[in-house]
């Protein structure tokens, strides 16, 4: 009985492996295309072994107007937005986690509700509103909107992480006369550093990949982040240079993949964000 | 993460007395105001840039605001909504959004995510790591990049047709003949990782003894899945379905890059329809009315999602 069970398990593991590999093969094809095409001197739309390896595609796109300016714009937008999000979320999470108030629960429920609304749906009114208040086509306006759209989820996450920091550690500081702000910055935040890292990386990754918000709120080509400028490879420049498009995609995607790996490692496995969303 | 969830559960009543005692001497309503002060920056941002636009959305949906001549907009009541329900293109967009959501989110991401998570429970470690890495990479990639990769995959000269040729199967111009199917697959490719992560976490929470006992009793794989696994993770299924649907409802960039809603309007889901009405046809009022409907549907799902969470939090 025991041996049949083990052998059944082994054959089941083989079946599971085979199943996963089939899915992995299907999923890897588009990824293989972008990697192989980026070093292929004659890249097309198909996955194929490159006709020799070249870095010509990379050197062709590594120019100020194609890569550096859009990436710098992305960095300003997402860096600014993330900084604003994390600071505001940490400040807001502190009283929510530490002090009793009748308003805590309704506030948190509203936050949770707001975090699941489809932001895409409000972009047309945001555009109209930004035209009225002269924030259209400004970096700061886009940063503010990025921060506001990411804040609900960031506050929710931050509060949950903060709840995990024991209060006893803070009480000592309170009796020594430390203010709330001091104990937040010196005691609570360092103790929940992995949590802060998750919120930071998550916000940054969401903004870095966001296309619709800058697409709607920015108009001047010089201000466009990489997520919008990548469309320039199509249309305006005539023939599409797929190798260069692939090379640019690789450059543009690398930061978020590295950030994700960094956070996933830190928290043991990639389940952090999935679990976080679950509540 | 479980630590965070656990702490949320023991909420307000379970608060230690120490906190109250330590700060009791400050006293008074002024104290609670000082305490709430750190929430202010977040609150201001949220009110100005999130609540503001939502309120503005609800207002201009009832006006005939246009891209040009801002000053002349006037209140038109439900006219925009009446136009929408009579508009063939709007009904087309609703239908395509429904197809897109059901195919890619309910059927695709959800089922494939669960299947992957279940297989991962049994698979060997290297295969699990490899597959997980690949699937998660497609999830972490920026939306527009994902769009390009799948555009290349589905194009006439793309990888899919090359494979079909190799298998001696008929090729298709996927983005032309079945654009909604192509973008749905693209969304499955991009979004499955999330379901996989949620379900992996849920399956790990099922005590081993229960499945093993059933296995020893001779319950088949399908029966174990139906009678044990699925009932035990039903909460995760609920929240995952809601979050997938909400994410799918707001997909814009992926479809925009792959098909621009075309050819014609055969892959024009509601967000793309809304964009076209507001900017290509300059009817901001009408576009916003559509946006408001989308927002209402989204809110409905968000409420269901919160309802499901309430039993957990």
Automatic annotation (TrEMBL), chain A:
Principal location: membrane
> Where do transmembrane segments lie in this chain?
14-36, 71-94, 106-130, 142-158, 196-219, 239-263
According to its UniProt entry, the protein's GO biological process terms are: transmembrane transport
Task: Write down the InterPro entries for this protein, in alphabetical order.
Answer: BP-dep_ABC_trans_perm, MetI-like, MetI-like_sf
Q: Which residues form the ABC transmembrane type-1 domain?
A: 71-263
**Which CDD domains does the entry mention?**
TM_PBP2 (cd06261)
**Can you quote a single GO CC term?**
plasma membrane
Give the domain of life. Bacteria
Task: Output this protein's name.
Answer: Sugar ABC transporter permease
Sorted alphabetically, the keyword list is: Cell membrane, Membrane, Transmembrane, Transmembrane helix, Transport
In the bilayer, the protein is annotated as: Multi-pass membrane protein
Its annotated compartments are: Cell membrane
**Family to which the UniProt record says this protein belongs:** Belongs to the binding-protein-dependent transport system permease family.
Which organism is this entry from? Streptomyces colonosanans
The protein's matches in PROSITE patterns, at most eight in alphabetical order, are given as:
ABC_TM1
